[in-house]
Amino acid sequence: MSYNEDVTRERGGSERRRFSSRRLDSMHLFVLTVICALSACASEPVHALWDREESIEAYAKRVDLPVTRTIVLADGVTMEFVLIPAATFTMGTPEPHPPNELLFVNQRWLGQSSLAVSAAVLLTTVIFVIVRAIQKNQRPQVSLARLVFLVLVAGWAVWGGLHWLQAERKNVSAKKEYAAARARYANSGSWGEKQAHEVTLSFPFYIGRYEVSQEQYQRIMGTNPSPSKGYNLPVDKVCWYDAQLFCKLVSTRTGVGIALPTEAEWEHACRAGTKTNYYTGDRDVDLDRAGWYIANSKCRTHPVGQKAPNQWGIYDMHGNVSEHCQDVFGWYDLSRTTDPQGAKVDTGRTRGSESRVVRGGSCREEKGRCRSAFRAFSLMHSRQHGLGFRVVIATRRTNVSVPVEGYLGE
Questions:
Q1: Is residue 344 a contact partner of residue 333, using CB atoms and an 8 Å limit?
Q2: How far, in Å, CA of 226 to CA of 384, rounded?
Q3: Pairing, β 355-359 against β 322-328
Q4: Domain segments of the chain: what residues?
Q5: Contact between 71 and 254 (Cβ < 8 Å)
Q6: Which CATH architecture is the domain 56-93+197-393 placed in?
Q7: What is d(CA 133, CA 289) in angstroms, rounded to the nearest whole number?
């Protein structure tokens, strides 16, 4: 074998070894990438969305979470939180669509025609039996088969009448619901409330069952700014910075991440699956059952938890005190409909970075401002009568950190 052949064979073996080495490195990199991806998926579990039919207890059992959580602030003073399910819901006030009249016309026609035909058959049969009896000069007689036939026809007549009546009732109910929806839409406020859009909150969270009380605020902040004093009254005359400082101190003391709710979290927790003005309905009497507002409050706050809760057990989402939210106030950011964090700053579509969302209405406001979809705002440093807050356990929040370090709470 010549020298050149030996060199060529050696070079070929060396290239094959390098190729095998590169292929092995590529396989190692691929396996490492897969492992990292699986680890990331394992660290970010996907929670099931609420199906809108099950109770909060059934949902909690399905996702293996407690229905409520309680944290101790100090000296036996506690805060109770309620589980809010991950879900997709319509945020804002949608433009209503008129009821399908053709559907009710068809149902009505089916009931009317069934009633008319069965009545005609019954009448014809009765006339036939009577005429035959007269011809034979005897009392009317009905065979068993004919009697069964008459009973079946009579049942058909009853079914037709009930179907007709049910169609009429559904038609009236649909027209009333449409009229109420038109009124909701006509009375909806500005700044994008009519930008009704679907929002998905992909993770469940916990929200305070009640508004933050004066007793809770006093224990954490060492002061009580509320004009009307009462340990079980909601704290008010607190600005957005005050609320943020409260959240930071509670988080530090308890080790549980506490924050203000985002606007989407607030509306989802308030609605609890409803689409009406208030979680109790559309009428004034429905608001009377749910919250304190100018018509029933005498313009003063009332102890938390006295009115009817929503179906998830949350109190005073309508009235008593308006509630701070985390978000900058402005037009909805429709580019982000999954876990939205509020309006974008410096887009010309906000009231400015110093304005923050306020929800729920207060004891000093009229009914329209207490609706589930109503949006208002307050400057971050502004303290007003009837302006308070409630908090959430912020396990998945990216904007919990807030600029309160230099705030002294003057």
A1: yes
A2: 10
A3: antiparallel
A4: 1-44, 56-93+197-393, 101-187
A5: yes
A6: Alpha-Beta Complex (3.90)
A7: 66
Q: d(Cα 234, Cα 303) in Å, to the nearest integer?
A: 7
DSSP state of 387: E
Listing DSSP states for 373-388 in one string gives T--EEEETT---TTEE
CB 216 within 8 A of CB 206: no
Angle at CA 135, nearest 5°, toward 133 and 136? 65
- Tell me, letter by letter, the H, E, C secondary structure of 300-341: CCCCCCCCCCCCCCCCCCCECCEEEEEEECECCCCCCCECCC
Choose among 375, 224, 228, 357: nearest CA to 297. 228
pLDDT in tens, 2-52: 444 443 444 455 545 454 444 434 544 444 444 444 444 333 445 789 998
User: What's the predicted TM-score (pTM) here?
Assistant: 0.71
Q: pLDDT (tens digit, 9 = 90+) per residue, 109-137?
A: 888 888 888 888 888 888 887 888 788 78
Give residue for tokens 């959580």. 69
Helix (H, G, I), strand (E, B), or coil: what is residue 70? Answer: strand
In the block, residue with structure tokens 């207060």: 362
Which residues fall within 8 angstroms of residue 252, CB to CB, at 6 or more apart?
A: none
Residue with tokens 């660290």: 43
**Considering only CA atoms, which of 243, 196, 195, 185 is closest in space to residue 349?**
195
